[in-house]
Amino acid sequence: MALGTCLLAWLTTVGATCGDTGQTHVTAEVVGHGVGDTTFESAGWSVTLTRADVAFGPAYFCATTAADVDLCPAAVAETLDVGVVDGLSADLQPLGILEGDTQTVRSATYDFGITWLATEPAPLPAREAPGGHSARFLGTAVRGADSFDFAL
Fold this sequence. Notes:
By secondary structure, the protein is mainly β. The chain has one domain (23-151). The chain is 11% helix and 44% strand. It has one helix spanning 2-17; strands at residues 25-32, 39-42, 45-56, 59-62, 77-79, 83-86, 93-101, 107-110, 114-115, 124-125, 135-143, 146-151. A hairpin with a 2-residue loop joins strand 11 and strand 12 (146-151). The longest helix has 16 residues, at 2-17. The chain is elongated, with a radius of gyration of 23 Å. It starts with a helix and ends with a strand.
């Protein structure tokens, strides 16, 4: 009898804490795209990019109006993946998978391939971050007779 009562109490507690919240778990592919343009003008220079890689992720989406660790201790949805967008391609490019619950998102916070967690003494670049940075740009700048190649 005592064992049956304990088992019933345990099942009631587990059932009460693990009930259905009415939200649906969702997953979606995260995609990005570049602009497709390779040349632009700036301060009298004609700049032609031959490479423009930009890291994105991880990203966290919150139900609160501020995506702050104190105000949003648990994300509604998140992608822990880091992907790199070819900024010179207007084609959709896969960046990772978003997982979360069906709720209203009011704010978001995201990184560009480098994350500084509260438990770490310094920022950490993701393995996917271009050269350990958030972005990498290669190209040529021309102004009149002056021309130089650059790598940033």
